[in-house]
Amino acid sequence: MWNPDVYLNFADHRGRPFFDLVSRVAADNPRRVVDLGCGPGNLTAALAERWPNATIEAWDSSPDMVEAAREKGVDAQVGDIRSWTPKPDTDVVVSNAALQWVPEHAELLVRWARELPAGSWIAVQMPRNFRAPSHVAVRTVIRREPFANQLRDVPFRDGKVVSSAEEYAGMLTDAGCRVDAWETTYIHELTGENPVLKWVTGTALRPVIDRLSDEAWHQFQQQLIPLLNEAYPMRPDGRTFFPFQRVFMVAQVI
Known about the structure:
Layout: H1 4-8, H2 11-22, E1 32-36, H3 44-50, E2 55-60, H4 63-71, E3 76-78, E4 90-96, H5 105-115, E5 121-127, H6 133-142, H7 147-150, H8 165-174, E6 177-191, H9 195-201, H10 206-211, H11 214-231, E7 239-253
Parallel strand pairs: 1-2, 1-4, 2-3, 4-5
Antiparallel strand pairs: 5-7, 6-7
EC number: 2.1.1.144
Pfam families: Methyltransf_25
Domain Methyltransferase: 33-115
């Protein structure tokens, strides 16, 4: 299960890209704002604050995340992003750190651009760190025994999961949008013991955790920790700097 509490341990770090993304959406008074991959709902609430007159629609594939969002007053529903289609009054679609889990997300973006009304907005942010040392370390442990057989078909993020800002700009322009796309590397300042492990436990390691027993997951962590600590050493002052690359696109349908 994807633990909402673990995810929210880094709410400030994970929230900054969301606000960097949404700040570029110049919708004045949208009728309907949709959050696809709403997670525990803390950022969805910010959409309601920015556009108080809009109907807020929120989806997530995780029942635990949806339950956490509902506890915050967000009218969230369990659903697969791939099956979502815009209602006629949809003026803003936001997807923050979710579409990287959908292999065919490029096709979805093009379809949404063609289905949304003229003047509407699509705002998407995805991690683009799948070749980072943190992911290399996880893949190293996955290939070891006793995990290799049990995790051989786990879809851990490898290869070209997410494209470049230039590629997304091109495909959305071809779909009839005016596009603002960019990439940013955030240097997150983490503290505490094994902070990078705690970070990836809340997101990237979700498929691994779902597959392993509690005992096997403990063993997995014990093998992963030294690799992460070597790649991201703690400074003498107790801080660990964790670079994290992300890609953004804000598109307005023409």
